[in-house]
Design brief:
The chain has 6 helices and no strands. It is mostly helical and 163 residues long. It is rod-shaped.
């Protein structure tokens, strides 16, 4: 069977189409994958929101870029590393637990522990003082000489005794 020039042209066209397609595409990316990465990144415009939650135009573009990079075959870590390289560690909503950022993870627990130790020390001191005080000496009564002196001073300043 002999092939004609039309068949060769069609085969060449199909080959060119296959070469023109981008290499390494993995097809459609699930929305959950895009959402997972977007929830880890801070929106540069609405700095207290994640890229997934932000309504800004910048966040929409970032979500599109995440989808585009995942469709090209990049992993979640590679996409996150791209944004960290572009914006710095600041772009991550939860900093990595390494180096200086380790303080962000350790200091809150250390502060709570130190506060609990402080409260326990104060309560213990109060209990020790309460036990050391005699039962009848809970409120010492003023002596009569002191009461007489206060009475005289009141009479001198106000002109008479108060009842």
């Amino acid at each position: 069977m002999r092939r004609g020039p039309v068949a060769w042209l069609m085969a060449g066209g199909v080959a060119l189409l296959l070469l023109a397609l981008p290499q390494g595409t993995t097809g459609a990316v699930s929305e959950e994958e895009v959402e997972h990465i977007a929830t880890q990144l801070r929106c540069p415009v609405c700095q207290n929101l994640s890229v997934a939650d932000s309504p800004s135009e910048m966040a929409k573009e970032m979500r599109g870029l995440i989808r585009e990079r995942l469709e090209r075959g990049e992993t979640r870590e590679e996409v996150t590393a791209y944004f960290v390289a572009k914006y710095g560690e600041w772009i991550l909503l939860s900093p990595r637990a390494s180096g200086f950022n380790l303080l962000v993870w350790v200091l809150p627990f250390a502060a709570v522990l130190a506060g609990a130790v402080g409260v326990l020390a104060v309560v213990r001191r109060w209990n020790v003082r309460a036990r050391a005080r005699p039962a009848g000496a809970a409120h010492p009564s003023p002596d009569s000489a002191y009461l007489e002196r206060v009475r005289r001073e009141l009479e001198a300043t106000e002109g008479g005794p108060r009842s």
